[in-house]
Specification:
The protein is about 40% helix and about 15% strand. The protein is an alpha/beta fold. The protein has a six-stranded parallel β-sheet, with helices on both faces. A three-stranded antiparallel β-sheet has the order 9-10-11. It has a two-stranded antiparallel ribbon with strand order 7-8. It is globular.
């Protein structure tokens, strides 16, 4: 070890000044987070900053993105962080993005249903769809904005009108329903929830969320009463969090975790590991039921959806639940398509 005597003059080393921004040349993927300052957006951006395959993390919101970007830029991971604000900044944020993930929009408050958010959040979906068509038509679009059952059809309809729609590249993130199901079942079975696996199909609100417990691994062992209570808790888990936060927010941390898991899976699909089959549940354009959009398990690849695995095996009770919720889901989809057509005509 080098020893220095008291009074020794230490040579000055020039201070290197680092700036955050999108001007870096490091190769990798560009991921844009639209709604990056919100309750979901900030923890989601933090989790995505850790992915070594992301070279550019582009943040957008109406305001206050500079502070979030500065904070994230101090983390010693690969991604360069850049920030944009307002309507004028949306296209810049999304320009040439490989993946756009959208947590933007109004969150639920106590007493509200997801459907109550359509009026405000439909405009968010519209702006993202127009921007994607203009600056990143080949991006994978992953939507968190509620109500997912309506928002995804809105975006699909606008993209179709713009001539840039690829059904394999548009996703409604329903991963939180799967994450919650695994957590609750793990607690019930007293096993590590990371070892639990099951499909959750349908939509992303109330009765349209259908966990297929008959296909759960390890086997779910509960009475009929316990099974019904578990399904109801999964379906109403968002309301459980909204009520617990007592008007101060909705499910943000768990949603950010689930969304980051989904985006990381999209990235693994883009990287196209030949030795790995990447399976995620998501709400997508579908022909597996009479509903035009439906959540099922998907195999992901470089172009988004490589294969839709379709409906899983179901017991009689699950088949009945599917049939009874389809009219609700179809109504939401019809509403979304109608709104999308109106918005496409107004642009």
């Amino acid at each position: 070890m080098l020893a220095l005597r008291l009074g020794t003059q230490i040579p000055r080393v020039p201070l290197r000044v680092f700036k955050f921004g999108c001007g870096g040349s490091r190769r990798g993927l560009k991921v844009a987070v639209v709604g990056a300052v919100g309750g979901i957006g900030q923890p989601l951006a933090l989790l995505l900053k850790q992915n070594p395959h992301i070279s550019t993390l582009s943040l957008h919101d109406l305001r206050n993105t500079a502070g979030v970007a500065a904070d994230l830029s101090h983390i010693n991971s690969r991604a360069t962080v850049c920030h944009f604000e307002g309507r004028d900044g949306l296209k810049k944020a999304m320009d040439k993005a490989d993946i756009v993930v959208v947590p933007a929009g109004l969150p639920r408050k106590p007493g509200m249903k997801r459907e109550d958010l359509v009026g405000v959040n439909a405009s968010v979906a519209c702006e993202v769809a127009h921007a994607a068509s203009a600056v990143c038509p080949g991006a994978l679009l992953a939507l968190i904005t509620n109500p997912i059952n309506v928002i995804v059809p809105i975006v699909a309809t606008i993209l179709q009108a713009k001539g840039t729609y690829d059904p394999n590249r548009l996703f409604g993130i329903t991963s939180l329903d799967v994450v919650r199901s695994k957590a609750f079942i793990g607690d019930f079975l007293n096993v590590d929830p990371q070892t639990v696996d099951l499909p959750v199909i349908g939509g992303h609100t109330g009765r349209t969320i259908l966990p297929i417990l008959s296909q759960c691994q390890p086997t779910y062992k509960g009475t009929d009463e316990e099974r019904h209570a578990l399904i109801k808790r999964i379906q109403e888990a968002g309301t459980e969090v909204v009520n617990a936060k007592d008007g101060l927010g909705s499910a943000t941390l768990s949603m950010a975790y689930a969304a980051s898991q989904f985006v990381n899976s999209l990235i693994r699909g883009i990287k196209d590991s030949k030795d790995e089959c990447i399976v995620e549940c998501a709400y997508v354009d579908s022909d597996v039921t009479e509903a035009k959009f439906f959540a099922t398990q998907l195999i992901l690849g470089p172009q988004g959806i490589k294969e839709n695995l379709g409906l899983p095996e179901m017991d009689d009770e699950e088949k009945h639940a599917l049939e009874s919720m389809l009219p609700l889901l179809k109504k939401s989809i019809e509403n979304g398509i109608k709104l999308g057509m109106e918005m496409a005509c107004q642009s």
